[in-house]
Amino acid sequence: MLRQLTFLTEEIRNANLLQLHRIAAEQVDRAMSDPALTEAMSTLQELSDRKRRQALFVNREYSAILLGHRIGAYGWEELIGHLRVLARNPIFAEYWETTREHRRSLPRHSMEARVGEAVNIIVEELADGPDEWWVVGPGEEPGA
């Protein structure tokens, strides 16, 4: 009975996370369709409308990847694999650098801070232009 209750609690948590992500994605869609809303949603200063929309979009992609890990759709190594692919995109790399200060407010041992640390390593190693890009980044979850 306790096992079933634990499972049900986790399922409800995951459903809530999915609903929250769906709401956030809808908000981003609305903002991306209206430049005034795009500007209102973004905290990034001095960006063109195009760059602001790109930043919102790659943030949504990053959030979707993170959500997959949060709900258990894939483990740490698969998360890192998805992030390696995303980080190869120069728009994502630019977004990641631009939002570096935003991540300072994350609790140091939170899952999102650990993922951010891993992405920092991936982006840094990809900047060196490795031939084997699919092996950059941490092998194990930092701080777990």
Q: Output the number of helix runs.
A: 6
The tally of beta strands, per DSSP, is 0
Q: Please tell me the overall pLDDT.
A: 88
How big a fraction of the residues is strand?
Answer: under 5%
Largest sheet: none
Class from secondary-structure proportions: mainly alpha
- Residue stretches low in confidence (pLDDT < 50, at least 5 long) are none
From the structure provided, what is the oligomeric state, counting identical versus distinct chains? single chain
Q: State the end-to-end distance.
A: 29 Å
The dominant shape is globular
Helicity range: 55-70%
Radius of gyration: 17 Å
Order of helices and strands: HHHHHH
Structure, explained:
- The protein is mostly helical and 144 residues long.
- It has helices at residues 2-33, 35-41, 49-70, 76-87, 90-98, 111-127.
- Helix 1 packs antiparallel against helix 3, helix 3 (49-70) packs antiparallel against helix 4 and helix 4 crosses helix 6 (111-127).
Short structural summary:
It contains six helices and no strands. By secondary structure, the chain is mainly alpha-helical.
Provide the fold topology.
Layout: H1 2-33, H2 35-41, H3 49-70, H4 76-87, H5 90-98, H6 111-127
Helix pairs in contact: 1-2, 1-3, 3-4, 4-6
Give descriptors for this structure:
single chain, 144 residues, mainly alpha, 6 helices
